[in-house]
Write a structure and sequence with these properties.
The chain has 434 residues and is of the alpha+beta class. The chain is built from 14 helices and 18 strands.
């Protein structure tokens, strides 16, 4: 049984995590502690000689793995484990995780073999089909040398792209793109996520780059990893952590309503961890994302769907990701009625002005959010107005780029009707402020 994990960052052994009698302890390497540009594993664990122990170490590791117990159980069976503990799973699947950290059983990284293996369109299509049949099948068909882990609840897999060819990374080789076939039971959710991300990008919001591709008749959302960067032919990892990790939050409490961080907690985190100008930028972007979520009906923007990038001497908010419109999966008759009151009871991931309900988001909500973020009065009002004025054209352009067959999906056809209704909601709310 593995009881010590080596933690690497940018090819350097930076820490060890030990397990003794079920208790996890994290300790930085002495050479790393005295380094001039040492970056913390997490803002929860500043670089120091201190030994960190207890639940927050466990929660940090858990947030690097899939949220779902059925997926973790499947991974454990694949690895021949008799436990789904995060420590044990990362000993097997921790070489390519979100961000730049790498996890290995003590002393084993020096013999890790890295490389990549070409993968055909049909092989990619079969993985997509497999996840659509059973969305716990995140690693079925994966070569034994690809120890990757991605967090979240949605079935996905990761590949690397180079010169027009897709590859499966081997050993510690990094992936570059994440493939998301969509959420089971919500046909076309991969398409609607791309459309939502496109609209956000058109509005000038800093978001991950996405595309829709088809492989042997199977469509899929491909997200370019913003925790990766190219340096010539080399692919480099960029260190980051999600806001559940940064706030020491269990994956079970990633939503505010389950006891997770509130907007005020995250603003405090930004003020504490970021330089003043970067903190204001992060609060501005986060507040804009909440307004955007209200307008498009995005209810899954929990604390794990935001991240911090950690550089030497600097921390900043990562690009936004996992944006979607949940309202398009209402019955077609509801969407085509274009009555925004039908969506009033839908709940957002974060409360604003003491309410989660989409229908309770008001002019007062905008003003409260502005004040809490330290933004000038009227800033978010103008942002909401700009969204209302431009979002229809952005959506139309995004849909026009899709293959004709994907334009005919019910969720895609519902989208313009939903946005029409939500634009009317925004106009009515903004009239309250005049």
């Amino acid at each position: 049984m593995v009881n010590v994990l080596d933690v690497y960052l940018y090819d350097e052994l930076v820490a060890t995590i030990r397990r003794s009698r079920g208790l996890l302890t994290l300790r930085y390497a002495s050479e790393y502690v005295v380094g001039d540009d040492s970056v913390p594993i997490s803002v929860q664990f500043p670089v120091s000689p201190e030994i960190y122990r207890g639940a927050k170490v466990e929660w940090f590791l858990e947030n690097l793995l899939p949220d779902r117990e059925d997926v973790r159980a499947r991974w454990a069976r694949e690895a021949g484990l008799d436990t789904t503990a995060a420590f044990d799973l990362l000993a097997v699947f921790g070489a390519d995780v979100a961000g730049a950290l790498e996890f290995y059983p003590e002393g084993t990284r020096v013999v890790a073999v890295s490389g990549r293996q070409p993968i055909s369109d049909e092989e990619i299509a079969e993985r997509i089909r497999g996840i659509r049949r059973d969305d716990s099948r995140w690693i079925d068909g994966r070569s034994s040398g690809q120890p990757f882990s991605l967090g979240g609840a949605q079935g996905k897999f990761a590949l690397a792209y180079e010169d027009g060819q897709w590859f499966e990374p081997m050993g510690s080789a990094p992936s570059t793109h994440i493939f998301k076939p969509g959420v089971k039971g919500y046909e076309g959710s991969d398409i609607t996520e791309h459309l939502t991300m496109w609209m956000a990008s058109t509005l000038g919001m800093n978001v991950a780059t996405t595309q829709i591709r088809e492989f042997a008749g199977e469509h899929v959302l491909i997200v370019e990893r913003f925790d990766r960067a190219r340096d010539g032919e080399a692919v480099l990892r960029i260190h980051q952590e999600d806001l559940a990790q940064a706030t020491g939050t269990s994956v079970l409490k990633k939503y505010e309503k389950d006891g997770g961080p509130r907007v005020a907690d995250l603003f405090t985190l930004f003020d504490r961890q970021l330089e003043p100008a970067l903190a204001l930028d992060a609060k501005s972007r986060f507040a804009e994302s909440l307004v955007f979520a209200w307008i498009v009906g995005h209810n899954d923007g929990h604390s794990k769907n935001y991240s911090l990038r950690l550089y030497p001497g600097m921390t900043l908010l990562s690009p936004l990701y996992d944006l979607n419109c949940n309202l398009v999966f209402e019955p077609e008759s509801t969407c085509r009625a274009m009555d925004y009151s039908a969506y009033d009871s839908a709940e957002l991931a974060f409360s604003v002005n003491q309410s989660y309900r989409l229908g309770d988001f008001s002019g007062a909500s905008l003003c409260v959010l502005e004040a809490d973020a330290g933004l000038p009065a009227g800033y978010l009002v103008e942002f909401a107005r700009r969204v209302e004025e431009t979002i229809t054209d952005a959506l139309r352009d995004a849909i026009d780029e899709l293959p004709e067959s994907l334009q005919q999906l019910t969720a895609v056809k519902n989208f313009p009707f939903v946005i029409y209704a939500q634009r009317q909601r925004v106009r009515d709310v903004l009239r309250e402020i005049r």
